[in-house]
């Protein structure tokens, strides 16, 4: 939705800052600022971590991207974009000051109120870490942190150079209110954290399911192998959450591009429990 009530019309935004996140030059973060105050006010009155936006590069097209910032960080919206095709390559070649269109926030986001009073076990890998980063940053806010119990974050990447938001996440090791565990696939000299695939590392760490929810966002293969580990640890499917990525067009439940069974990933999701997914046809 935009301020003129036409849900297909993007809000005019401007690239304020760009920063390369990974050594392989594949993941670039964009901090977008609003051209119109009313759009900014509307966005932040609606936004919650776990939601996404449709970004449009004029003349090239539009695609969905998860929001990678928490509202308290400032008057901007961060996205981290993997360079995979036409639109994303064009975005990587853009410069601060360039215009860009944005529709959103879209989708349901994480059910933050339902999780209050519970321990959070956040498991992420690869470029899907973006919305988890927004979630953890939201929860670490001083006036929000007390609403939740223990916070554990397990974050995996193939190599140390492929972790995103390096400076910020390094500071999580200094905090007492988050247990932060990073893992790389294969050991490298100088690496002093976990080694192994995320499902194996999750098993090794063995987070308790007591009064806890698990939130899993990673490449499909990581998700698939992490679910049984969490189940073995005692997490019921109702307390395992996942954010789905599926090809989308409208992003607002109109075009039928993204549905699985009766659920529209763009409108009913992208965040689902494993229990909900188990009710859907197996075409994820
Ligand atoms: C809810 C949601 C959140 C997302 N969040 C992010 C994010 O935070 N960062 C990010 O980099 N990407 C994210 N994506 C994926 C992103 O939308 C696609 O990478 C993007 O559409 C590619 O556009 P393109 O024109 O560059 O690639 P194209 O030229 O259209 O395609 C290039 C390659 O990418 C594959 N691809 C395209 N779209 C998707 C998709 N939706 N899922 C899986 N593979 C796809 C194609 O099959 C092809 O192999 C998200 C997708 C969804 C649905
Ligand atoms: S993308 Fe159109 S219905 Fe979901």
List keywords for this structure.
284 residues, alpha/beta, Elongation Factor Tu (Ef-tu), domain 3, Rossmann fold, 2 domains, 7-stranded mixed β-sheet, 6-stranded antiparallel β-sheet, 8 helices, 15 strands, 23% helix, binds flavin-adenine dinucleotide, binds FE2/S2 (inorganic) cluster
Can you offer a commentary on this structure?
It is a single chain. This protein has 284 residues and is an alpha/beta fold. It folds into 2 domains: 11-106, Elongation Factor Tu (Ef-tu), domain 3 (Beta Barrel); 119-243, Rossmann fold, CATH 3.40.50.80. Helices cover 23% and strands 29% of the residues. It is built from 8 helices and 15 strands. The protein has helices at 37-46, 86-92, 129-139, 142-145, 166-172, 198-205, 220-232, 274-278; strands spanning 11-20, 27-34, 52-57, 61-66, 77-82, 99-106, 119-125, 151-157, 179-184, 194-195, 212-217, 240-243, 259-260, 263-264, 271-273. The strands form 3 sheets. The protein has a 7-stranded mixed sheet with strand order 10-9-8-7-11-12-15, sandwiched between helices. Strands 4-3-6-1-2-5 form a 6-stranded antiparallel sheet. Strands 13-14 form a two-stranded antiparallel ribbon. Helix 6 (198-205) packs parallel to helix 7 (220-232). The longest helix is centred in the C-terminal third of the chain and has 13 residues, at 220-232. The two termini are 27 Å apart. The model has no long low-confidence stretch (mean pLDDT 94). Residues 52, 63-66, 79-82, 84-88, 127, 130, 245-248, 270 line the site of flavin-adenine dinucleotide (FAD).
